[in-house]
Specification:
The protein has 32 helices and 13 strands. The protein is mainly alpha-helical. It has a domain of 133 residues: C8orf32 fold. The radius of gyration is 29 Å and the shape is globular.
Length: 760
C-alpha cells in the first residue's frame, strides 16, 4: 500500500533524500511522552498509615514530571500511545500550475491515508502477523490461537550473532549467519529474524561505538559483519514481513532477496532511494520481476531496476496515447533501457547513474515509440541538452488563441509545428530522458504570467534549472514522479550543493540518521540524541538532519523535569536553533521552514509583542536581501505575523492587521505572486468585519495601481494584470460595491483587447 507524505518535515524516520520517514516497526521503539498517572498504594494493618504518607509524597512528585516510555513493537503498532507528535512545518502551498496535468511529469495519483506516529507515518493495518504466530484474527474478528512455527520460535530463542572482531569473519560465524537467513526465508519469520538482528546489534554496539568526536561511530561502518546486519535491519523495516510473504512462494524472488541482503551497496541504495510513500510491496514485486527477467544483468542494472520499482508502483499514464499504449509498462521500460545501454545508444549510460537520478529518467510518460524517435532523431552532448528547448519554435497563436496545430501530440509534431513554453519543456525533458539524462518540467508564475521551463542534469553532478527560465519566478515547482505531489525548484538547487554531490558525505550523514533509528529502537535516548546531533553536524545542508535534531531536542526537553518551556535558557536555545538553520540556508530560505516552526512553538509564545514584530521584520528583510525573487516567502511571513496578532484577540487586532498589510503591499507588492498572495490573505483576514473589508479592498486596489499596474500592451503582462483586476472586481462584488466592480471590469476588458490585437 502506498504511504503518503508524513505530516512532518521531510527526512524523519526512515531518512531518505526527501520527505519524512515511516514509524519504527517490528522491534522498533515508539517514544511516547505522557504524564505519569498516580499509582494507588495500599497496605493493610500497621503499614496502612505509612503507605498513605509515602504514596502521597510519591504522587505529588511523579504527577508533576513527564515520563518517556519506550514501548516495544514486536508484534505490531504502538500500543498505549496517548498522544501523537505534532506535525512539523511544511511551506505553504500556493499552486499556480496543476502538476497532475503537467506534460512530461506523469501524474501518480493521490496517496492513501495514513496513521501518524511520533516518528512519521505508517500505513493503516501494516502491522500484520505472520503465518504460524499466535493471535491471528479470525474471519469474524475474534482472536484465534495457533501453534507457533518451530522455526520462528527457534529464531526468537537464538543467541546474538557474532558481529565484531576476528571471530565475526570465521566460517563458523558466516555459516551461522547464512543458515539463520535461510531459516527466515523458509519460515517467513522476518519479524523474528529482524528482532534477532536488533538484539545482535544492541549487544555489539557498546564494544564498537566511541564516546566522543566526529568519528566516534566510524568503527561501526568498518566492521563488515556488523554493518551488513545493520543494513539488513533497516531494509527489513522498509519491506514488511507481509510484503515479503507475498513473494515467498517464488524461488526467483528468494534468490533476489538473498542477493540483496548479502550486498551492502545495494542495500544502501535501497535505503537512500525508497521513501515512506512508496508502495513497498509493489516495489519488492517489481524487483523480483526484474530478477526473473534477467538475473545475470540484475546486479549491473540494479539501480535502474530500483528506480523503475519506486516509479511504477503506481500507474504512470501516457498523457497522449500513441500506438495503443495508454500507460507505461514498467518492466518493458526497464528492459528497453538495458537494451539501449548495452548497444551504446544512450548519451548518459544508465548503469552509471544512481537510482535517485534514474527516477527522473524512467518516468517519461510517453510511448516507447517516442523514446525510439528521440534516440534516432535528437543528438547532442549532455552538457548542451538545454538547447533542445529552443529547437521548438514559439507559436504565439497557441499562446493567445489556444491554437492546436498538431495532428497528434508527439515529439515529432512539436518539433515540426512549434509550440508554447509547456510544449518546449515537454520536448526537451522527454528527449533528455530517452537518452538517460535526468530531467523534469518546472512551472511557476512570473511577472508576465504563468511559465514552464526545464530542469536538466546536464553534468554528472550538476542540475541546470535555467533551461527556458525567465526572471521573476517566485516559486517554481515540478511534479514529483516518485511519490506524487510537487517538488520545488529550490530543492533541486540543494542537489547541486557540494555536500549533496559527494557520495561519501551523503552516505555518512544518512548512516548517522539510520543509527539514530537503531538507538531509538533500543531505547537508548542519550545515544539517539548524540547520533542525531552528529548527523546534523556532518550534514548541515541536509534538511532531514534538522528535522531529526528538532525531534530529539524536543524530546530531550520533555525529559528535563527541572526546566519549563518558558525557561529563558530553553527559549534562547530555540532562538539559536532557528538562527542557525536560517544562517545555513541563507541563500535558499525555502529550505528553512522548520525555523519558523521553532519560533512559533518555542519562542514567540514567551516573547513580548514588540519583539515578535521586530523578529518578523528582520526575517522579511533577510528574504529580500538574499532571495528577493521568492516573494511568496514574504507573504507567508506576513500571514504568520497577522495570525499572531489575531490570536491576541484585543480590540485593535483588526486595525493592526490592516496597517501591517497596507504597508506591506506597497513595500513588497512588486512581485505578481507576492502581491496576489498578500491581497488574498489581507482580504481573508478582514472577513466578518464589513468596514475592515471595505478598507482592505480599497487598500488592495490602490496598492495595485501604485506598484503593479503598468498599462503595458504586451499581451503576457496585460493578461497578468487583468487577472489581478478580476480578483479585485470579485472583492468589490463581495462587499456589495457593484458600481466599482463594473467600472474596473470594463477597464481590464479594454486592456486585453488592445494587447491581443498587438500580439497577433
Amino acid at each position: 500500500m502506498k504511504r503518503p507524505p508524513s505530516s512532518k518535515v521531510p527526512g524523519v524516520r526512515p531518512p531518505s533524500p526527501g520527505p519524512a520517514g515511516p514509524a519504527p516497526r517490528r522491534g522498533g521503539a515508539t517514544r511516547i511522552v505522557r504524564a505519569a498517572k498516580a499509582n494507588t498504594i495500599g497496605g493493610v494493618g500497621a503499614l496502612a498509615f505509612a503507605a498513605f504518607v509515602v504514596g502521597g509524597v510519591w504522587y505529588s512528585i511523579e504527577a508533576r514530571k513527564p515520563r518517556v516510555v519506550v514501548i516495544r513493537q514486536d508484534g505490531g503498532g504502538a500500543e498505549g500511545s496517548e498522544e501523537q507528535a505534532k506535525p512539523l512545518p511544511q511551506a505553504e502551498a500556493r499552486d499556480v500550475f496543476d502538476f497532475s496535468k503537467a506534460p512530461g511529469n506523469g501524474p501518480k495519483g493521490t496517496p492513501e491515508a495514513v496513521e501518524s506516529t511520533p516518528f512519521g507515518t505508517r500505513r493503516p493495518g501494516s502491522a500484520m502477523q505472520a503465518d504460524g504466530t499466535p493471535g491471528v484474527a479470525g474471519k469474524a474478528g475474534a482472536a484465534t490461537t495457533q501453534p507457533e512455527n518451530p522455526a520462528i520460535a527457534a529464531l526468537k530463542a537464538e543467541t546474538p550473532l557474532v558481529l565484531t572482531g576476528l571471530d565475526a569473519g570465521r566460517d563458523t560465524a558466516t555459516s551461522r549467519d547464512q543458515a539463520l537467513l535461510k531459516t527466515a526465508m523458509d519460515s517467513r519469520g522476518w519479524d523474528a529474524y529482524r528482532a534477532l538482528l536488533e538484539r545482535s546489534l544492541g549487544a555489539a554496539l557498546p564494544t564498537l561505538a566511541g564516546k566522543e568526536g566526529r568519528n566516534r561511530f566510524d568503527t561501526l561502518w568498518s566492521e563488515p559483519a556488523f554493518y551488513q546486519s545493520f543494513l539488513r535491519w533497516q531494509v527489513l523495516d522498509r519491506f514488511t514481513q507481509a510484503d515479503i510473504k507475498e513473494i515467498s512462494h517464488d524461488t526467483y524472488a528468494l534468490e533476489m532477496l538473498k542477493w540483496l541482503l548479502n550486498n551492502p551497496k545495494a542495500m544502501e541504495e535501497v535505503l537512500l532511494t525508497m521513501k515512506p510513500e512508496d508502495d513497498s510491496a509493489k516495489v519488492l514485486v517489481f524487483l523480483k520481476d526484474a530478477w526473473t527477467a534477467n538475473s545475470d544483468k540484475f546486479p549491473k542494472f540494479f539501480n535502474l531496476a530500483l528506480a523503475c520499482a519506486v516509479v511504477f508502483d503506481r500507474t504512470v499514464e501516457i498523457g497522449e496515447p500513441l500506438g495503443g499504449e495508454s500507460s507505461v509498462n514498467g518492466l518493458s521500460r526497464y528492459l528497453w533501457y538495458i537494451e539501449k545501454d548495452e548497444k551504446g545508444k544512450l548519451t548518459a549510460p544508465v548503469h552509471r547513474s544512481s537510482a535517485r537520478d534514474l527516477v527522473w529518467v524512467v518516468c517519461a510518460p510517453v510511448a516507447t515509440s517516442e523514446l525510439e524517435w528521440a534516440i534516432d532523431k535528437v543528438h547532442m552532448g549532455r552538457g548542451s541538452w538545454g538547447n533542445a528547448y529552443g529547437m521548438v519554435e514559439y507559436l504565439m497563436e497557441r499562446a493567445v488563441k489556444g491554437l492546436n496545430p498538431y495532428e497528434e501530440y508527439s515529439l515529432a509534431e512539436i518539433l515540426k509545428e512549434g509550440g508554447i513554453c509547456g510544449d518546449q519543456s515537454y520536448f526537451s525533458v522527454n528527449t533528455a530522458r530517452a537518452h538517460g539524462i535526468p530531467a523534469l518540467t518546472l512551472a511557476g508564475e512570473t511577472d508576465l504570467g504563468g511559465h514552464a521551463w526545464a530542469a536538466i542534469k546536464t553534468e554528472a553532478n550538476q542540475w541546470d534549472t535555467n533551461v527556458g527560465r525567465i526572471g521573476g519566478v517566485s516559486k517554481g515547482e515540478g511534479g514529483n514522479v516518485q511519490i506524487g505531489g510537487s517538488i520545488s525548484e529550490q530543492e533541486i538547487w540543494l542537489w547541486n550543493d557540494r555536500a549533496h554531490q559527494s557520495d561519501v558525505t551523503t552516505l555518512s550523514v544518512y548512516r548517522h540518521l539510520w543509527l539514530s533509528d537503531l538507538y531509538a529502537a533500543l531505547g537508548k535516548f542519550d545515544d539517539t540524541f548524540a547520533s542525531a546531533s552528529l548527523a546534523n553536524e556532518l550534514g548541515r545542508s541536509f534538511p532531514e538532519t534538522w528535522s531529526r535534531f528538532y525531534e530529539v531536542k524536543e524530546e530531550k526537553e520533555q525529559k528535563d523535569v527541572y526546566r519549563q518551556s518558558a525557561d529563558p535558557v530553553i527559549v534562547k536555545a530555540w532562538k539559536e536553533f532557528a538562527a542557525d538553520m536560517r544562517r545555513e540556508f541563507k541563500d535558499n530560505p525555502r529550505m528553512a521552514a522548520l525555523a519558523a516552526r521553532a519560533e512559533d512553538e518555542h519562542v514567540f509564545p514567551y516573547s513580548e509583542e514588540g519583539e515578535v514584530g521586530r523578529a518578523m521584520n528582520r526575517e522579511r528583510r533577510r528574504i529580500v536581501r538574499n532571495s528577493g525573487e521568492q516573494a511568496d516567502l514574504i507573504a507567508t511571513s506576513l500571514k504568520r505575523e497577522a495570525d499572531i496578532i489575531k490570536k491576541r484577540g484585543d480590540a485593535t487586532a483588526t486595525r493592526d492587521i490592516g496597517r501591517l498589510y497596507d504597508g506591506a503591499l506597497r513595500e513588497y507588492g512588486g512581485s505578481i505572486t507576492g502581491f496576489k498572495m498578500m491581497a488574498e490573505d489581507y482580504y481573508t483576514a478582514t472577513k466578518g468585519d464589513s468596514e475592515a473589508s471595505k478598507k482592505a479592498v480599497r487598500d488592495i486596489e490602490l496598492a495595485f495601481k501604485r506598484v503593479v499596474e503598468t498599462g503595458s500592451k504586451d499581451w503576457f503582462r496585460a493578461n497578468t494584470e487583468s487577472g489581478i483586476y478580476r480578483m479585485i472586481v470579485g472583492y468589490y462584488r463581495s462587499i456589495g460595491d457593484e458600481g466599482r466592480a463594473k467600472l474596473l471590469e470594463k477597464r481590464y476588458e479594454r486592456l486585453l483587447r488592445l494587447a491581443e490585437r498587438g500580439a497577433l
